[in-house]
Amino acid sequence: MEVNGYIGRVLSSSDSNLVDPDLLRDASSIAEMGDSPGLDLDTLNEWRSFANHDPNPDEFLYHRLLLAQCKALAEGIPALFDPRQNYQALFLPGNLLNQDSIVRRLVKEIPEEDWQNIEVVGWLYQFYISERKDEVIGAKSKVAAADIPAATQLFTPHWIVQYMVENSLGRLWLESHPESRLREYMPYFLEAGEKRQGGEFSPLPPAPQPIIPITDQAYFDNDIVTRFIEFLRVAYSPETLTENLNFIANALTLKNGESAQERIRRYFLQEFISDHIQTYKKRPIYWLFTSGKKRAFGALLYLHRYSEDALARIRTDYVLELQVKLDGEIARAQQQLDNTTYSAAKKAATNRLKELQAQQLELRNYQAKLQTQADARINLDLDDGVAYNYTRFKGLVYEGADLKIAHLEKAAQWKRELLK
User: CB 184: neighbour CB atoms within 10 A?
Assistant: First the structure.
């Protein structure tokens, strides 16, 4: 903050020939100006009187001045300098003016131009949590929820943020406005499958359709678990893929005998939509089109890339194809049942056959409802809001205790009144 001009020189000297911070050398001027709450000339003189009885007067006085500066910053940055918590007084180390103190090392060992780049704070944070992060990632047992942030709350450099924005919001804008010149101002934007010159980086191409199927088996090439695993492989590396999958599965809590991929699939199938609804305050931007309680079919549709033919594509590309695949699964399950003599295996085959038959029935009913809505070619106006737009797909989209259609209809009553 001081090298960027937000505050005076608290840790360093503005004179390269001097060592002591300006805060200590110019204490009288600072107190006279009254810029620091609780610091005036009378207070400063009192502190100096106390300092004369301390083995290290300058250290005593600097400690008090530094705490006064923290108090002055509390109004603007209470999360770090809240005087009610008084963390600074409790944890502020001694001997701050020594040549090997943390203050001296910050000033001497890190060039001032580095401090002028705000990202240095992030890299310092990253350094201080590095040991704990390695411990959490390398844990052989279940990771406690309180420990997960050490491995997941990492510093994000500016270029990564820029890359993410350009290849998400920027891409959406270019898809809607192909004539736009925005592409010229996005240095990190990548066309699908593009490789950077001199590097091996090849990003995952964006899904050609805003539809990601979620089923209890990997029936489709762009199945959500398949895409997720491919993302981990590309974003990190093939060498750490198994390690990363195990880490994620352990964080989600595994059942006995459940593999990492099975646990991740169960999360997407049963838990993801509720987490998403909670995150977006009951106004989800990913809509789960689902056949029902048997979870025969599910697909996430990204609201901001919705088009009038989206339902038709869900029906023809996924639901009708899944009906054929389920017929094959039912035939195989029946054959396995006919060929099994062991009671335990026969029971498992019977249960699986019943499950598949129930899913097939659910899927047939869903296909009929989906066809009716697909033929209507529903057009959405995003200005109508999530509540109103979501209710237009009643019977096709997810509804649960955390997202009730009746509540959304009530919230969208203003729009229905306008349509009368």
Answer: 8
Residues in the chain: 420
Give yes or no for a contact between 366 and 297, defined as CB atoms under 8 angstroms apart: yes
Contact 136, 150 (CB under 8 A): yes
Composition of the chain by helix, strand, coil, percent to 5: 60, 5, 40
Question: Is the separation of the CB atoms in 302 and 290 below 8 Å?
Answer: no
Q: Which residues contact 214 (CB under 8 A, 6 or more apart)?
A: 223, 224, 268, 269, 272, 288, 298, 299, 300
Torsion of CA 82, 88, 89, 93, to 10 degrees: 180
DSSP 262-300: HHHHHIIIIIHHHHHHHHTTT--SEEEEE--TT-S-EEE
- DSSP letter for 254, please: P
354: CB partners within 8 A, 6+ apart: none
Lowest-confidence range among 23-32, 151-160, 387-396, 402-411?
151-160
Q: At what angle do helices 224-235 and 241-252 cross, to 10 degrees?
A: 130
The neighbour count for residue 276, using CB atoms within 10 Å, is 18
Picking from 68-77, 192-201, 257-266, which range would have the lowest pLDDT averaged per residue?
A: 192-201
Task: Give the residue-averaged pLDDT of 368-375.
Answer: 96
Placement of tokens 């996430």 in the chain? 300
Task: Note the pTM of the prediction, 2 decimals.
Answer: 0.60
